[in-house]
Amino acid sequence: RLYQIPFEMPDCEGESETRTLHLVGDFSAPAEFFVTLGVFSFLYTMAALVLYLRFHSIYGENKKLPMADFCITICFAFFWLVAAAAWGKGLTDVKAATRPASLIAAMGVCQGPEVVCNAGTTPAMGLANISVVS
């Protein structure tokens, strides 16, 4: 939810005055999907572990239970792949929305003929990149 994050921009009309701007974009849906799927996967894993360890005889005698377990596992694997791809796309969109060159281009004060704007520092995205890889 980048639109909730304010940042200060100097106002060229007054030397000491600043304007508060907000970033643009809401990329929370892919992250929420990724985390929700992770929580459901964890809960299913705990339930399956209890079934395997505590009710092993029921699991072995019933022929439909292993097949249902296999189908649920395949569904979770597919949705995990989709969620990881969505999280990667969401991260790419966040990077594009917070790229210093994009922010400077969107600022009206930087569009003047004799105005020179620079970003200062580039945001560090190393830990975010690692979250997509893992």
Automatic annotation (TrEMBL):
Pfam families tied to this protein: MARVEL
Domain of life: Eukaryota
Main location (coarse class): membrane
Membrane-spanning residues: 33-55, 67-87
Membrane topology annotation: Multi-pass membrane protein
Record-annotated MARVEL domain positions: 1-134
Subcellular location: Membrane
Signal peptide: none
DNA repair keyword on record: no
GO CC annotation: synaptic vesicle membrane
Keywords of the record: Glycoprotein, Membrane, Transmembrane, Transmembrane helix
InterPro entries reported for this sequence: Marvel, Synaptophysin/porin
Family note: Belongs to the synaptophysin/synaptobrevin family.
Protein name in the entry: SYPL2 protein
Species in which this protein is naturally found: Pelecanoides urinatrix
The organism's taxonomic lineage, starting at the top: Eukaryota, Metazoa, Chordata, Craniata, Vertebrata
